[in-house]
Amino acid sequence: MSTRRSDLRTALKKRKPVLVIAAGFAVLAALIPIAVAADDQTATQAAGVAADTVWVIVTGCLVMFMQAGFAMLEVGFSRMKNVGTVVAKVVTNLSVSSIAYWAVGFGFAFGAGGIFAFIGGSGFFPTFSPGSQLNLPAIAASTAPAAAKWFFEFVFCAVSLAIVWGTMIERTKFIVYILFGIPFAAFIYPLISHQLFGGGFLMATLGSQDFAGSTVVHLTGATAGLAGLLLLGPRIGKYEKGRSNAIPGHNMPLAQLGVLILWFGWFGFNPGSTLNATNLHFADVVVVTNLAAAAGAVAALATIYFITKTMDVGMIGNGAIAALVAITAPSGYVEPWAAIVIGAVAGVIVVVGVLALDKVLDDPVGALPAHGLAGIWGTLSCGLFTVPALAKFNGVGQGGLFYTGSFHQLGAQAIAVTASFLTVFVLSYGLFWIIKKTVGLRVSAREEMEGLDISEHGMWGYPESFMPVPGGVYRPADTPTVNPHRSPEPVASPARSEGSAA
Predict the structure, then answer these.
(1) Whether 172 contacts 180, CB under 8 Å
(2) I need a surface site. Which of 76, 190, 287, 432 has the fewest CB within 10 A?
(3) Are the CB atoms for 324 and 263 separated by under 8 Å?
């Protein structure tokens, strides 16, 4: 045994240089990943930063998915001849607003400098790198990188623009969506966003609260839609002999699918507005958001049944949407019981608002009451129900009337609503007026009767309903629609015809 150990020591001494070199290579190989990681700044960031970043991006994706909700909602409330143009409009608006908001909109909304009490002045045409930051004073407390903040704030802008067109579907020229969408995303929406999200006068000095956008997103979109609607006019056949005619949408299941998608997306909309996962406040916001939506749907169901003795499917969905709009501003400020009250009131408002406004304004999807009136109510409700401790936690304003006995916060909310409405209405009306006087807002009467799918895009969304297709039911070219329950008239043979004549 001793001889073997002696031989092993002798062999190791002979190979010592080789072993030293091998050990050196092993140490070097172990250090290379450390050196590479040191060069990669993202590898040394705290887990909390990563959590916040993932949270902001995921919730931003939920908000972006709301575009599908708007598409299905508007498709369901449209007639069959106009469904294709709705989808084309949604995709086009999302695209043009992406570029416009990246170029200048984000800088106007959140950038430092400029006349900051009025509008932002930096961060235009931003570039991003892993973990990079921009000078964004109002959202600097969030540790998420600038790219994540940009994406989250952009999808809010896209939602606001989508709301505009709910009032104007089925008779608007497609080019109008682009001509209005670009300046809306570049300036009109950022102007209001800066005031209530970005550290402008209403938020920083007056203390007006809007946690996730009852005014910034929803009232802004509805107000612009109102301005366009007043210049556009109603659909053909809507008002005749002094009465309002119902023009029902073609597919209520699709419309309610849109409602459910929007409800789902709102769990990104409101909770994501914390821009923070690690303080855990987003979980509270999830609860109040869901409770408000549920209360709105139930209240709308009860209200429409009380008025008409029917349980209108569209009204139930509108009740949920209106409640979600209303809870958007106070979602980070109120307790669950208050969320139920806020949602229920919104459910009543939307039913009464739809029935009243339909007598004078042709708003096919009920966007004005669901996003406008409910947005106003939601913003004002902060002045009633904001918990003082949550106002302090969020760093904006103070407690509401029911907790403090003071009308101060309610007054700040009323000023925010009034200033935002007037600003958006004036700018939007002026822009729509210019478009109307140049390229025009509305398609011709013939194009409207034929449907925007075929007149604007060259193909129907439901082609089998309007034209023969391979494998479909044959119909003569002059037959306007196919009736599958009626057999075509048999064609008499020439011999039978001659016999009959004899």
Answers:
(1) no
(2) 287
(3) yes
Closest CA to 286 of 314, 300, 267: 267
- Mean pLDDT, residues 313-338: 97
Residue 420 CA to residue 207 CA, distance in Å, equals 15
d(C-alpha 250, C-alpha 258), whole Å? 14
* Euclidean distance between the first and the last CA atom of the chain, given in angstroms as a whole number: 130
Give tens-digit pLDDT for 180-206: 999 999 999 999 999 999 999 999 999
Task: Flag the least confident range among 81-85, 110-114, 235-239, 467-471.
Answer: 467-471
**Distance (Å, rounded) from C-alpha 52 to C-alpha 275?**
7
119 phi-psi bin (left φ>0, alpha ψ -120 to 50, beta other): beta
Q: Which residue has the tokens 């005749």?
A: 240
CB atoms within 10 A of CB 286: 14
Contact by Cβ (8 Å): 261, 68: yes
CA 419 to CA 220: how far, in whole Å? 11
For 38-67, how does the pLDDT look when each residue is reduced to its tens digit (9 = 90+)? 444 554 468 889 999 999 999 999 999 999
Nearest to residue 350, comparing CAs of 331, 329, 324, 388? 324
The Cα diameter of the chain in Å comes to 132
Q: Say yes or no to pLDDT of 174 above 90.
A: yes
Residue type, 306: F
* Cβ atoms 178, 297 nearer than 8 A: no
Give the torsion through C-alpha atoms of 111, 116, 120, 126, to 10 deg.
-30
Whole-angstrom distance, CA of residue 489 vs CA of residue 487: 6
